[in-house]
Amino acid sequence: MIEGLFFILIVILVIVKLIIRNDIKKRQKTQSYLLDLREQKEYRKEKTEFQNNLHNYKYEYWNEIIDGTETFEIDKSEVSSQILLDNWEYISKYYYVIKEEVSAMRNDTDFKEEQIIYDLSSNHYLTKGLYRINLDLIKHKIIGFLTNILENSQKLREPEANIPLKAISIIYSLQGNYNFYLCAEPSRLFHNDKYSKYIPEFELRHEFDIDIDRIETEILKELNVLSGDYYDEYSDYTYDLFSEFMFECWKIAKQKTSSKLLGSLDYGSGGIDYDLDTKEGIDDSKIKEHYKNRGITIEKDLES
């Protein structure tokens, strides 16, 4: 009897001990979780304050220098990087404003070195400027490429095709900010693939002349800025700038050839991104309706 009571007492003590231990663990986890939340909240607060204060460090005449309304003087002899000197015609004004911005930031009493990298890599001032220059350098080449396609578009169709070519797709793929790929084919949405032909001359691969990433790194090196955390985190700007560039080149090629052919700018993974003639973004569910309204005969519909 006594042994049974003693055993029950031991079991109760073990259970109580386990409950206490679990309660302590839960409290520790809760405290740790709350601490993590506080740290995350504090981090987000600091990051937000940091981002909000970025504009206070920008060089006062940045935009005026870039758009040419303000002049500047800089001694090129102070630059040692060969790639910067080789591209001085294109990068001098960017080098100047970045140099002035870095100087202004370092003279601020609340300055933190990492602000320089965060500012430059977030705003893409230099990157966008050099990317536009890279596009401008090949403008005549792309206009010629599109002109050739429009003048020889019949090569894209087999002779037995009953319906004339009405719409083509300019398919593109961008590799970061350093190269791209283009090719032309009959629009797969409207023309039957069995009448389509692959034409090697309607394909183009190009690597840009200006090495943007290397130039950016060299500028930071010249200004004694640690560039380890400088990277092109968001490259959406390349798609926006490239599509605007293609709209302009397509318009000029159409004017030169008086072509009535309609075109779409398609990203390589599929789907129509833009109507090259109207610059409209086209929703997948409204593609056929969009082009029917523009007088396109849907070859696939006629054969189904």
Task: Please characterize this protein's 3D structure.
It contains eleven helices and five strands. The chain is α+β, with helices and mostly antiparallel strands. The chain has two domains: 54-132, no CATH class; 139-303, no CATH class. A five-stranded mixed β-sheet has the order 3-2-1-4-5, covered by helices on one side. The model is unreliable at 32-37 and 43-57 (pLDDT under 50).
The domain count comes to 2
Low-confidence stretches: 32-37, 43-57
Largest sheet: 5 strands, mixed
What overall form do the CA principal axes indicate? extended
Main attributes?
304 residues, alpha+beta, 5-stranded mixed beta sheet
In short:
This protein has 304 residues and is α+β, with helices and mostly antiparallel strands.
List the helices and strands and how they pair.
Layout: H1 2-52, H2 62-67, H3 82-86, H4 88-106, H5 114-123, H6 125-137, H7 139-151, E1 167-175, E2 179-186, E3 203-207, H8 212-222, H9 236-257, E4 262-267, E5 272-275, H10 287-292, H11 299-303
Parallel strand pairs: 1-4
Antiparallel strand pairs: 1-2, 2-3, 4-5
Helix pairs in contact: 6-9, 7-9
